[in-house]
Give the backbone structure.
Amino acid sequence: MIEITDLYKRFGKVKVLDGVSLEINGGGVFAVLGPNGSGKTTLIKSILGMVIPQAGAIHVNEQHVKGQWQYREDINYLPQIARFPENLSVKELIGMIKNLRGKKANDDALIELFGLEEFMDKKLGNLSGGTKQKVNLVLTFMFDCPLLILDEPTTGLDPVSLIHLKELIQKEKEAGKTILITTHIMDFVDSMADEIVFLLEGNIYFKGTVAELKKKSSKNELEHAIATILTEQND
Amino acid sequence: MNIIIVLTPMIGTIFGVMYFYSSREFTELLLAQPIRRTTIFLGQYLGVALSLTMSLVLGLGIPFLIYGIAQSSEIWNFGLLLLSGAFLTFIFVAVAANIALMHENKIKGFGYAIFIWLFMAVIYDGLFLISLVVFEDYPLDKFSLFATMFNPIDLSRILILLKLDISALLGYTGAIFQKFFGTNTGMFASIGVLLVWCGIPVFFIKRISEKKDF
């Protein structure tokens, strides 16, 4: 599905990705974890072609992504910070993206699920952070694509929406889709993720299941297991 | 006339920079969709440039039409004025887009954009005049012809000046200019140069946008 080989990326003098190789095959939830600034978002943006790496290759569905755009038809992406053109209303934005993709969308069900009906005619600039994130989620989940990339999907969501989000992800997982998530909320990872990719200083430090990570650090809770890895690194 | 020649580039530059900075969120949204990068950026460029050109052409055209320009013999000169205004808009929006894409820092971007406008509209002329005074012992007609070509604002200004038959005021150099710009060849050559002036920054928009990280 996604195959990354020897990916290097630096922003000026800061090395963000330092030879990352990663293969993600088959359906399931893959959690990309790591401390702040470990290159999670850069990795995801490279897959989407928004960040252009200095060296290395990325293949999505056996297709080299460099300079390509058609492969993004199969990807739904949820950006980390919900930033939208402020002068559009929610309805216009959803309409525009639907028009762009030209695919069947089940936006109505999602709007109802997140209770966005009353915001449909409001401008995006006037919405609160959490509501913007809900709009973001609607835009991401409304198309039926085999690959979902979610960059910190939980930011700003209330508990009810969080439960809805988990249900949505569960449903997509059962449909056999590949879901890539970055997050800092370990409960979320513990309950959702099939496999963990742990990034540290631009490299993959660990790849495996949650159980394997716990075993490796001999801790029972994921949060502690991660903390152990991080403090060991600092020593 | 001078208002158009000096103000259109300024409006183009400032609107262009403003637009490209404020549409950044929109660009990020589009970049994650299955659209080619070049399409996004050239689309944005054409959107700004075309709407500014429309406002110039309609904003000037309608009042002059009411005033009765269509019946007068000045219609062609007026058309040329609008045409060069349109060219200037396209050129300076493209330059502004380049600046906005190259600099993340908005203040820096605005600064460079305003400087480029000021340079082209005022400083260039000053340097040009100084060089004419300093080298007045040499034949300068070829030099001034070329120097004009390197500044789209000057080029449009002279193109229009000569159409208005004021060139007699310019003496010998004016005659050379008249000989060059007054003919059809000169006219097409200058429009060709203006086209090149559009093409180069647009090409750079394409190149920068393909390499930029978001």
Q: What stands out?
A: The mean pLDDT of chain A is 85. Helices of chain A lie at 40-48, 90-101, 107-113, 129-141, 159-174, 186-192, 210-217, 222-234. The first helix of chain A runs from residue 40 to 48.
